[in-house]
Amino acid sequence: MLMINEAFHTLYTGVATKEDIDAGMKLGTNHPMGPLELADFIGLDVCLSIMKVLHNPAKRGQPSARL
């Protein structure tokens, strides 16, 4: 789930496009789908709920504003 959050943060900050993020993860790690595709498949509402549970005060795991 943290990979999905980092992908949304990368998209939000403008470091890469949605297509580049998904292609990079598919080609670089041999995953069948990229993190943004996976988030769409799981459901953004489910991803956000999980990230809220994982959130801690040190801001590690804080849900991305884009999610």
TrEMBL record:
Xref: SUPFAM superfamilies: 6-phosphogluconate dehydrogenase C-terminal domain-like (SSF48179)
Any one GO molecular-function label of the UniProt entry: oxidoreductase activity, acting on the CH-OH group of donors, NAD or NADP as acceptor
GO biological process terms, semicolon-separated: fatty acid metabolic process
Residues annotated as domain 3-hydroxyacyl-CoA dehydrogenase C-terminal: 3-59
InterPro entries: 3HC_DH_C (IPR006108), 6-PGluconate_DH-like_C_sf (IPR008927), 6PGD_dom2 (IPR013328)
Pfam families, per database record: 3HCDH
PANTHER family named in the record: 3-HYDROXYACYL-COA DEHYDROGENASE FAMILY PROTEIN (PTHR48075), 3-HYDROXYBUTYRYL-COA DEHYDROGENASE (PTHR48075:SF5)
Descriptive protein name: 3-hydroxyacyl-CoA dehydrogenase C-terminal domain-containing protein
